[in-house]
Amino acid sequence: MKKETEHIVLKASDLSVGYQSKKETHTVAKQINFELKKGELVGLVGGNGIGKSTLLRTLTNTQQPLAGTIHVNNQELTKINQLTLAKQLSVVLTENVSQTNLSVQELIALGRQPYTNWLGTLSATDIEKTVSSLDVIQIKEFAHKKCFELSDGQLQKVMLARALAQDTDLIILDEPTTHLDLYHKVYILKLLQRLAKETNKTILFSTHEINVALSMCDKLIVMKQEKTHFGTPQELISNNAFDDLFPKDLVAFDLDSGSFKIK
Question: In 3D, which of 63, 81, 75 has the Cα closest to residue 25?
Fold first, then answer.
């Protein structure tokens, strides 16, 4: 009998992602295979324009795969209705929050929409989950502030809290450290690491902070032109997955330190 932590939350099998029109199909990446388990923090890395956002849109059912299958909690993604999916998968994007006049607590409470009635009335459980998320993300002190009053780093914490209030097994984030300084980039990634361990949720995020991801993630998905790799940082380093990730004229991967170095 498998342990609960071995339960596969998200699985991609022979997945191809890209765009399809009446005239042609443009494949961005193909033969993508991975299995993400409970409590894992997983980074998605690769060069600019390689297709990280396309892959995330496909994994969140925003666009259809060109080939292959995606399973969330052993159910095929394309066969899960939107309400059921919203109880299993939450998404944090880098786009500006449109509800800027809402208070922090009101914005976080929107994460409870999949569970409320048609009037959007919050139950005692909904309120409890909202308040609990404020505590876990440690932002209770500005719960009643308006979102437009927050810094980028504070707003990113609020978006994480909203995803946490949604109470899903899987949280997917598209570049959660964009527009943040170095300290707050590391702070957010440390927060994601803590959330994965303490809440046993599976967290997948795309990032350009490859060196930080290498030191903090349980697994990495590495997208390259010819192949997408998946494994632990140690496995990927041993398999030379990072050697040709970027042109070698300016940066190169250093095996001794397990990080990229500027030439």
Answer: 63
Q: Are 97 and 159 in contact (CB under 8 A)?
A: yes
Domain ranges of the chain: 95-167
Structure tokens at 67: 């080939």
Averaged over successive runs of 10 residues, the pLDDT of the chain (263 residues) comes to: 68 95 90 97 95 96 96 96 96 73 93 87 94 95 93 91 96 92 90 94 95 95 94 95 89 89 87
User: Going edge to edge, which strands form the sheet with 89-92?
Assistant: 89-92, 170-174, 202-206, 41-46, 219-223, 228-231
Cβ atoms of 196 and 39 within 8 Å: the answer is yes
Q: Which pLDDT score is estimated for 222?
A: 97
Compute how many other C-beta atoms are within 10 angstroms of the C-beta atom of residue 105: 21
User: What whole-number distance in Å separates Cα of residue 47 and Cα of residue 245?
Assistant: 7
How many angstroms separate the CA atoms of 73 and 202, rounded?
11
Which residues have C-beta within 8 Å of that of residue 166, sequence separation ≥ 6?
86, 87, 90, 111, 112, 114
**Token pair recorded at residue 7:** 């339960």
Which secondary-structure segment (H or E) carries 155? helix 152-165
Rounded CA separation 216/34 (Å): 19
Overall pTM > 0.90: yes
